[in-house]
Amino acid sequence: MQKIIHGFDAGKFSDFLDECGAAKFFLVCDGAFEFLPIKDVFDGVGVPYVKFDSFSPNPIYEDVERGVRLFLACGADAIVAVGGGSSIDVAKCIKLFSAMDASRCYIGQEYKDSGVPLAAVPSTAGTGSESTRHAVIYYKGVKQSISHDSIVPDAAFLEPGVLKTLPLYQKKCTLLDALCQGIESFWSVNATDESEIYSE
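Below the sequence we write its predicted structure tokens.
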């Protein structure tokens, strides 16, 4: 069951790391990370981490492969994604693929839970990637939807302060994205009384 945590600070983040027993974590983020008001939290918790930001805005399979190799080599025991949908999707795929056979294409293999703890700190609004079982990457130029229950992040930290750093255009895009997600959820055949309240 995913934990939704409102706000992001050293105390809340330390609690997550303690709960999953992480002695080192793997930080998946994009270039905007350096400008986020929460950046200092990562150094403030006193837990070492390795940063991975070598992926394109529309991540390709090879980006994820590089991430899996680095994750396995660095000895981290948890993954933390910070950023928009692309960062979170890359982190989800690294989690899922990290327990699979690296000599074969990950996409063609059976998906299983790797057991790696995953937290997401979205820096945009609207994609919903921090709370879904889906991720999107491109393989040989074709969009692939990677889906598995185990890639829903264990914790989603919702920190509105990160939205202040978004350029106005991105703020408008995320607003429209959130609006569309709400509408789709509201009229979904799988809607529940609770989901309709959130959608509205």
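The chain has a mean pLDDT of 93.
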